[in-house]
Backbone:
């Protein structure tokens, strides 16, 4: 029989693994944007940085036991929940601007609705979480579950884009660009 402490260690490892997968997702999506539509590279780079903050926050929230490291757990959760809303908003904006697969007419409305639900649920989660009544704490836990499921469904919509992913897209991240020398007319 597995003890609660062993179960918590397994859950912490799973959360760390999912935070790592989210980081890989952010890097791969940035490489995809750079390869297919480099005009929006700055917005994609901002999204990648925000995604790294989300991943670090999720890693911190998942690996800091709330009984022993309550402040770090809450700080990581706050970072990941707030910044994932910003991350989803930027990626939804990139969906409308970049034609990567041709399925953007279907994906953009779905991602817009998912982003709206994520932002609304995060606000409601924050309001309900600070309440002291047990009923509100329970409802906030339901909203936390909804936030996680909604984010996973949002990421699942990118499976269409990653179908068109190639290994050459990663080489875009590793290759150095030749510096453009300004043309001086004297």
Residues:
């Amino acid at each position: 029989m597995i003890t609660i402490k062993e179960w918590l260690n397994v859950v912490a490892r799973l959360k760390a693994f999912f935070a790592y997968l989210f980081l890989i997702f952010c890097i791969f999506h940035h490489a995809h944007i750079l390869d297919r539509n480099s005009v929006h590279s700055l917005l994609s780079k901002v999204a990648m940085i925000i995604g790294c903050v989300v991943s670090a926050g999720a890693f911190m929230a998942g690996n800091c036991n709330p009984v022993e490291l309550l402040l770090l757990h809450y700080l990581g959760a706050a970072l990941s929940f707030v910044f994932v809303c910003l991350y989803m908003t930027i990626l939804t904006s990139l969906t409308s601007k970049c034609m990567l697969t041709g399925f953007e007419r279907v994906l953009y409305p779905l991602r817009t609705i998912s982003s709206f639900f994520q932002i609304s649920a995060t606000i409601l989660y924050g309001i309900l979480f600070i309440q002291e009544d047990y009923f509100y704490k329970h409802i906030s836990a339901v909203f936390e579950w909804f936030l996680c499921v909604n984010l996973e469904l949002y990421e699942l919509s990118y499976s269409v884009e990653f179908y068109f992913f190639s290994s050459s897209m990663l080489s875009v991240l590793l290759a150095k660009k030749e510096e453009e020398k300004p043309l001086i007319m004297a």
